[in-house]
UniProtKB/TrEMBL annotation:
EC nos: 4.1.2.63
PANTHER family in the record: 2-HYDROXYACYL-COA LYASE (PTHR43710), 2-HYDROXYACYL-COA LYASE 1 (PTHR43710:SF2)
Organism: Taxus chinensis (Chinese yew)
Protein name, per record: 2-hydroxyacyl-CoA lyase
Catalytic activity: an (R)-2-hydroxy-long-chain-fatty acyl-CoA = a long-chain fatty aldehyde + formyl-CoA; a 2-hydroxy-3-methyl fatty acyl-CoA = a 2-methyl-branched fatty aldehyde + formyl-CoA
Amino acid sequence: MAGEKKIDGNILAARAFARTGIDHMFGVVGIPVTSFANSAVKEGIRFIAFHNEQSAGYAASAYGYLTGKPGLLLTVSGPGCVHGLAGLSNAMINTWPMVMISGSCDQADVGKGDFQELNQLEAVKPFVKFSGKAHKVSEIPALVSQAVGFAAKGRPGGCYIDFPTDVLHESIDVSEADRLLAGIHPFVPIWALPSLPPPELKQDIQTAVSMLRQAQRPLIVVGKGAAYARAEGPLSDLVRLTGIPFLPTPMGKGLLSETHELSATAARSLAIGQCDVALVVGARLNWLLHFGEPPRWASDVKFILVDVSREEIELRKPSLGLIGDARVVLQEINKEIKDEPFALGRNHPWVGRIISKASENVKKMGAVLAKDVVPFNFQTPMRIIRDALLAQGSPAPIVVSEGANTMDVGRAILLQTEPRTRLDAGTWGTMGVGLGYCIAAAMASPERLVVAVEGDSGFGFSGLEVETLVRYKLPVIVIIFNNGGVYGGDRRNVEDIQGPYKNDPAPTSFVPGAAYHTVMEAFGGKGYLVGTPRELQSALTEAFLKRNPAVINVTIDPYAGAESGRMQHKN
Ligand code: ADP
C-alpha cells in the first residue's frame, strides 16, 4: 500500500524466528547477515557470537539436544556456510534438532563468481531433512516455520534456510508482514507435548511387557534419544516396577543416577553379553552398542527397540519394534505393568550377578584410583575431578568430554547423577566439539556449572572460544589433560623414523608443556597450571566456587594413555 510503513527481510526474518519462541542463536556475523543478527537481538533473541562457525554449529546442535528446541546457527555465505556444515552434520548424525541459516549472494549475480558465492542448497543436501531458499521477502515466514517444524519432527535433525542478500534487503509492507507472521506458531518441544500414544501401539506394548516378564536376564538400555525425550520419569518408574538393571550409553548416562543400585555401567560386558531380552530405548544398535551382534551380545538375544524413527526399526529388524516417543512409550509400558509389578529384587539370580559384578569392578577400579600417581596418569586427576563434581550436588554440573584417552577414561570414572549432564564426541566421535558444547550448555542450563574435561588436542580445535566464555561471563571451567599431543607425546622408536623430514615433530605431537592456561588469561579469565593432586584440588575448589571462566591446564605424563584410546585396531 502506498505510504505504508515497511520493514526489510532482515527484520521480517528476525520476527519470524522470534515468533517460534526460540530465543538463542549461535553464529558468526559478516556479509550479508549482520543486520539480521542485530534485528534478532532487537526481537528478543540472544545472539551468541563465536570466532568460528564450526564451534557455533556444534553449539547450536547441542542446544537443540539439551532444550528440545531447534538450535539456530547463523553463518555468512560461502566459506561461512562450509564451516557451519560441521555443526549441521553433527546434528544430523546425533539426531538433534537444528536450523542453519546462511546468507547467500545476490540472486542476480548467481553464476558470475560473486563474493563468497556457493550453491549452498547443494552443499547442505547430505546433512538436512529439509532445506529451502527464500526467493522473495514474502517467502521468509513460511520457510522459517517449515524449517523449525521439520527439525524436530519425527527423528530430529538438521534443516537449512538460505537468505540471499537481495531478499534480506527487500521491503515488505508491515501489514502484509504481520499477516504472514500470524501463520507461525510457537514451537513446542516433544517433551512438553501431551502424551498421546498411537492406538496401534497397544498390542505391541502388551507383547513387550510379556517378553520382559518371561525373560530370565532382562536389561534396559537407554540412549541419548531417551534423554532428549526427557524420559527419565517413566524410566525411573519402569526400573522401580520391574527391578530390571539398566545400562546407559555414554550420553544416556545420568538419565537415572549412576549411583543407583541397578545401574549396570560397571558390569557392562556381563550385562550385554548375557542378557536374553534387551529393551533398548532411544539408542541405535550402532558401533557404540557393538551393532547388537555377537560376540559382544548373545546370538539369541531378543531386542525390543523403542525409537521415534520407523527407518531405524526397519534397519535393525529387532524382535519387536515400538515406534514412538520414548517418554510416551515407557509410560504406556508402565501402565501395562502397574497392576502386576514384577520387581525382581536383588535376590533374583540375574540381578544379583549384575550387582555383585558391578561392585567387584568398582572395587577393582577403586584400588587403581586410590593411588596418587605423579607425574599424572589419566586416572589420578580423573578421580579428583569426579569427587569435585559429585561434591557439587544438585543441580549437577554438565560435563563436556572429548579426546581419545581423556574421554575413554573419563567415561569409566566420572559419574553422572542427573539427566542430560554429559555431552561428548557422540555418534561420530567428533573431536573439537568441546567449547561449542560448553557454551550451549551454559545457555541451555544457566543454573548449572559446566565443566569440560578434554584432551589438549580436543581443546586445540576451538581453543580461542575461551574468549567467548569470558565475553558472556559463562560459568564454564575447561580442564585440559595436557600430554603434549594427539594420544600423547612422540612415542615413535627412533630407528623407525626415516626420510627427509625425520627431524620434524611426530604427527601426533604438539609443543610439549604448552601453556594453554595463558590463552584464557589473555582474555581476562583465570588460568591454572597444575601437576599434583594438591594443586588440582585447590584449582578445582576455587574455580567451582567462583563459577567464572577458567582453564585448568593439567600436566599429564606424555607417555600415559594409549594411541587411539581403545580403538587401536582401527588406526
Ligand atoms: P546413543 O548414542 O545414546 O546410543 P543414538 O544417537 O545412537 O543414541 O540413538 C538415538 C536414537 O533416539 C535415534 O535412533 C533417534 O531416532 C531416537 N530418538 C530421537 N528422539 C526420540 C524420541 N523422542 N523418542 C524415542 N527415540 C528418539
